[in-house]
Amino acid sequence: MFLSNTNHEEDQPCHLKLADPSIPLGKNLPLYDEPAQRYCPAGVYEIVTLESGEKKFQINAQNCVHCKTCDIKDPAQNINWIAPEGTGGPNYPNM
């Protein structure tokens, strides 16, 4: 992520949206062990276990390198990647 020079504004709305928030834990976790936590090269998606023992699907959008892998590889096609606001995103100076 460091090499991509990704920059997101702190108060920017999340550019990664779930069509149905129940799918990651209700369908993808039991069937596929939630593949989003493995196919994302920047570690944007993770399953977090809360102190109560309850599991939560967490999106760390600030880590996103805008490769759109999640939009393509999600088995339920539940993740919708949209372009972030303003000038946010990766800056590959040597390309």
Automatic annotation (TrEMBL):
The record, for InterPro entries, names: ETF-QO (IPR040156), ETF-QO/FixX_C (IPR007859)
The UniProt record lists the EC number as 1.5.5.1
- Every copy of the ETF-QO/FixX C-terminal domain together lies at 2-92
- Give the UniProt keywords, A-Z: 4Fe-4S, Electron transport, FAD, Flavoprotein, Iron, Iron-sulfur, Metal-binding, Oxidoreductase, Transport, Ubiquinone
Q: Does Iron appear among the keywords?
A: yes
Top-level taxon of the source organism: Bacteria
Q: Could you tell me one molecular function GO term of this UniProt entry?
A: 4 iron, 4 sulfur cluster binding
Q: Which Pfam families match?
A: Fer4_ETF_QO (PF05187)
Principal EC category: oxidoreductase
Cofactor comment text: Binds 1 [4Fe-4S] cluster.
Q: List the SUPFAM superfamilies hit by this protein, alphabetically.
A: 4Fe-4S ferredoxins
Q: Which reaction does it catalyse?
A: a ubiquinone + reduced [electron-transfer flavoprotein] = a ubiquinol + oxidized [electron-transfer flavoprotein] + H(+)
Swiss-Prot/TrEMBL cofactor(s): FAD; [4Fe-4S] cluster
Q: What does this protein do?
A: Accepts electrons from ETF and reduces ubiquinone.
What is the designated name of this protein?
Electron transfer flavoprotein-ubiquinone oxidoreductase
Q: Which organism is it from?
A: Pseudomonas linyingensis
